[in-house]
Every structure is written in structure tokens, then in C-alpha cells.
Amino acid sequence: EIPDATVARLPEYLRTLSRLAEDGVPSVSSEELAAAVGVRSAQLRKDLSHLGSYGVRGVGYDVETLALEISRALGLTEDWPVAIVGMGNLGHALASYSGFVTKGFRIVALFDDDPALVGERVVDIAIRPLAELDDKHAVDPISIGVIATPAQAAQAVCDRLVGAGISSILNFAPAVLSVPAGVDVRRVDLSTELQILAFHAQRKALA
Amino acid sequence: EIPDATVARLPEYLRTLSRLAEDGVPSVSSEELAAAVGVRSAQLRKDLSHLGSYGVRGVGYDVETLALEISRALGLTEDWPVAIVGMGNLGHALASYSGFVTKGFRIVALFDDDPALVGERVVDIAIRPLAELDDKHAVDPISIGVIATPAQAAQAVCDRLVGAGISSILNFAPAVLSVPAGVDVRRVDLSTELQILAFHAQRKALA
Ligand SMILES: NC(=O)c1ccc[n+]([C@@H]2O[C@H](COP(=O)([O-])OP(=O)(O)OC[C@H]3O[C@@H](n4cnc5c(N)ncnc54)[C@H](O)[C@@H]3O)[C@@H](O)[C@H]2O)c1
Ligand SMILES: NC(=O)c1ccc[n+]([C@@H]2O[C@H](COP(=O)([O-])OP(=O)(O)OC[C@H]3O[C@@H](n4cnc5c(N)ncnc54)[C@H](O)[C@@H]3O)[C@@H](O)[C@H]2O)c1
Fold this sequence. Notes:
Two copies of one chain form a homodimer.
Chain A: H1 4-22, E1 27-28, H2 30-37, H3 41-49, E2 61-62, H4 63-73, E3 80-85, H5 89-95, H6 98-101, E4 105-111, E5 121-122, E6 125-128, H7 133-139, E7 144-147, H8 151-163, E8 168-171, E9 184-187, H9 191-206
Parallel strand pairs in A: 3-4, 3-7, 4-6, 7-8, 8-9
Antiparallel strand pairs in A: 1-2, 5-6
Helix pairs in contact in A: 1-2, 1-4, 2-3
The complex binds nicotinamide-adenine-dinucleotide (2 copies).
One nicotinamide-adenine-dinucleotide sits between chains B (85-91, 111-114, 117, 130, 148-151, 153, 156-157, 172-174, 188-190) and A (93-94, 96-99).
């Protein structure tokens, strides 16, 4: 059983490893990889031991091998079809973000209830009304639903996604969603990052 | 010295406490608060002890008091003027996100180099060319810069912000920024959340 805190760090390790691989770096020490992500090297070794990944004393980890082991543990070697509901400003930014495609997340459907948006093509996919979710899911099954609607629409949209059989949801709307057991919801709040910056800025000012 | 991992969890505790306060709940046990955030209660007690916040055995924590202690530790009782550079899809979504204002982050300036966007008003602030950064910062000092430009413009924009004296940067562009010592950069990668969802979805499928 891999602890949640470890799972949350794996994408960070992978991002650093991908950069090293792009730069042609063959191996990396646990100290170096830990420093790049901002954890202690003992924590990194403990995290990676959950995957059965061990470095070689004095040499460290092989970059390509470790990146593949983490990708496999995260399920990134598979195909993850994603649907975005709510194609306003945020939906448009998410649909065209290159960072999704490079990790195996394939945008397959875009939904919005605004008739003025229906039919518009973004990343070569036509925006459809949410009423067409079941038809689309039947043809090209959706693994992950992303909610980028206003808060008051979020629960109803979530119910539609869960009703269609989608059990992984990424929610951007500032609303707490209630879901049945077996459905995973992750909530993104970009103000969290600003709060961490504020913490460090305040400490700098006080120092 | 508060560990980074603790700092990263404080906004989560605060979000749950704010919800409890809205619902008029007077106190919360460490088990209950820990479960809402997804950590063990021993970890929560350890995190809060760094702030000098202790619960009362058998009663737990006072919701209002703990929320204020965390807000103060994060510096949220102060005013944090924020500037956004890059007013495309993401910039528009960030500028109008209500989740910033409620935590004390005040959007004071919006910049974009596209002449077609300059002059447009978003949340009643006019988009200005980045060349006007120094004038704006002199009149209404900016604490945090948010970069929502394409990757290839990100380093140059970062240099402009740092050159103006801004030492806290939130970067959305998929580019690694190099900054002088004393400048904090936090990077947001929304694919991280999708990877964590993929991890849990894969385990459900294998179970
Ligand atoms: N969590 C964060 O950090 C963060 C950051 C920015 C924005 N947001 C949130 O993301 C959401 C979207 O923000 P935005 O700036 O893109 O808003 P927006 O108004 O530009 O877009 C919302 C879109 O949702 C559509 N919509 C509304 N109800 C719908 C329904 N029932 N079914 C399908 N589509 C529906 C609208 O037609 C619109 O196109 C908001 O809730 C905002 O608060 C969150
Ligand atoms: N990190 C994440 O999770 C995430 C998610 C979505 C998008 N993004 C990234 O955010 C960025 C913005 O995405 P978008 O969809 O809003 O793109 P966009 O093309 O809609 O907007 C980019 C804006 O930046 C402006 N710009 C370009 N160069 C500039 C400069 N030198 N100075 C000032 N403004 C400049 C453009 O005029 C444009 O308005 C992209 O880099 C994208 O990859 C990141």
C-alpha cells in the first residue's frame, strides 16, 4: 500500500527526471533528486522503496529506468481519456495545455451548456452540450472528468459524470462535491500556491 | 522553523476550517480535521504544534481560533497585491477566480503584450503592456507575480518581474525559471492532479 503523501510526490520526481532525461543525464543521486523536489533524501529513498526502486550506492538511480518505474506506478503508461465540462476561460486553458498530453492524458470530449459555445472547435474537438455525455462515453469511454463550471453547477455536473460511470473527477469549482463510495474527487485550489508563497514572503520580511 | 511539507498542508486545514466556520461548527477533533484533509491525526497534531496550536484533550480545537492562528502563520491577515502577466485563457480565469480574494490576495495589475488585449477591463482592471510594470509597481507595490504566458516568454517575463523588485513568483508556464537567490518561485502543473487520479483509478482497476 503506497501512502497518499508518497503518491503526491511521485509526479514531482517524474517531472525532474523527465527534465534530466531531456538533458541527456544518465544517472542522478538521491540527494540531487531530493533537493530538486524539496524533500530530504531519506524521504525520497523511502518513497521510492514503495515502488521497489533502489539506487546503487555511490552511483544513484538510472534516470530512464526510474522515470519508467514511476510512470508505470502512476499508470501513465496507459491511455487516460479525459472530458472537460465547462468551456469558459479555464476550460479553454486546460484543453490546450501541452502538459496533459505529454503524460498520457488524452482530451476526448469538451462539454458546455452555453449554446453560443456549442460547435466551437478547441484542439480540434467540437464543444458539445452535456446532454450528449452518455452517447460520447458509449463510443469513446471517458476515464476522468474535469469540472470547470461555476460553483452552483458543479454538483449537478458531477452527478451526471458519476451517473455515466465516470469514477475519477478533478474539480476546479469552489464547491464541495458529495459522491458515492468508489468515486475519487480531487479538488484544485490555486490559491493554495499563493498561500505558500505568502508564507515564505512573510518570513523573508520578518527575517 | 516550520517544515515545507507542513506549510503545504496548512492551506488544506484552513479550507476545511473555513467550511466548518461557515456551517457554524464551534469545535473540531484532530481526528475529524485530519480525515477531512487526508492525513493521520498524529501528523495534524505535529503540524499544528509548529504554530504553537494545541487542542484540548476530549474537546479538540476551537474552529475560529485555529483558523485565525493558521491564517496568521500563512500571512493571510496581511494584504498581498498580485499582478498577472499573460491575459489569455488562463489569465482571464485566474483574474476572476473568487478563491483568491477571499484569502486576502488582491489582483492589482494585469499585463499582456498583445495590443488587441491592452485596454480590456477584467474585474474592473485595465490590461496594460508589460512595459508599464515599473510605473505601476512604483504607485501600488506588487508582492506576487503570476506568469500565465507561453513557455518561451516565461523567463523574460520573470526577469522583468524580478528586476522590478518582485521576489515571489507563481509560474504556470511549462518552463524551468532561473532566478537569483532570495526569489521564491512556485510552479503549478495541473497534470500532477490528473496523475494522482490516474494512480487511484489504476489501483481500483487492478483490485
Ligand atoms: N480552483 C481554482 O484554483 C480556480 C482557478 C480559476 C477558476 N476557478 C473556477 O473554475 C470555474 C470556471 O472559471 P472560468 O473563469 O472558466 O469561468 P467561466 O464563466 O469563463 O466559464 C464557466 C463555463 O461553464 C459553463 N457552464 C455553466 N454551467 C454549466 C453546466 N451546467 N454544464 C456545462 N457547462 C456549464 C458556462 O457556460 C461557461 O462557459 C469557476 O468555478 C471558477 O471559480 C477555479
Ligand atoms: N501549469 C498548468 O497546469 C497549466 C494549465 C493550463 C495552461 N498552462 C500554461 O499557461 C500558459 C497560458 O495558457 P493559455 O491557455 O492562457 O494561453 P494563451 O495563449 O491563451 O495566453 C497567453 C497570453 O500570454 C500573452 N503573452 C505572450 N508573451 C507575452 C509577454 N512577453 N509578455 C506579456 N504577455 C505575453 C499572450 O499575448 C497571450 O494573451 C501556457 O504556457 C500554458 O502552457 C499551464
